[in-house]
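Narrative summary of target 7.
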Amino acid sequence: MTALVIGGSGFLGSELVRQARSSGRGAVATYHSRAPGDPGGGWHRLDLRDARRVDAVLDSVAPRVVVHAGSGGADWAVTADGAFRLAVATARRGVRLVHVSTDAVFSGAAVHYDETAPPDPITPYGAAKAAAESAVRLLHPAAVVARTSLIIGDGGSAHERVVHELAAGTRDGALFTDDVRCPVHVTDLAAALWELADSDVSGVFHLAGPDCVSRYALGVLVARRDGLDPALLPAGLRADSGLPGALDVRLDGAASRRRLRTRLRGVREFLG
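Modeled conformation, tokenized:
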């Protein structure tokens, strides 16, 4: 089955491509600006703001499934309108779509959010992702919307790099003790997304780990795994920082985990 990974040069996207190719799946991927130095080839430049380019890539690849793991941040034209264009184009061609979303669609007011919770974003990024979800669910009812949380790896994620920079004193800032999420390992997340891609299910899934920890507690776990002194990590309160965004957002993925064969490990397990 030919699969197209949107955002294949990103952290999650590259793991999706790696798993697909290691399992013999015919995977093709897109990048936005710089082509990856990948000897496997199969890369297409794609700007989701360009509807004609979206059509051209889909017609060239003729995928049976598209996994949209790209991120345009708070850029509405990419994150929201781009998801709209992709949903229209895949639905018109009868192509299965798995759209990766985020816990940023929630404000944190309710703390615990299961798959039935309506988005209530409080940041431009969260609003763009919430709009993208709505577009996908409206225009491509057979699609999957997969919300996730902080994505951690074996050293390559943004949060892991921040921990190392803070410990080395090459970065200013602090890890917040009141900013709580449910981290997931990138290999588990990618495997779950491929499982959903290969199925015929639709609707909203929560693909996050069962352990909810603060960003500071997560940083301590990363530091211990990597042989760093946790005492070097500065702590603070996000509530005092003036930074926008939700504090405590816990994705309840119990219903999703019951429907998956892939096991999503808790952060205390994969960093333990």
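The chain has a mean pLDDT of 95.
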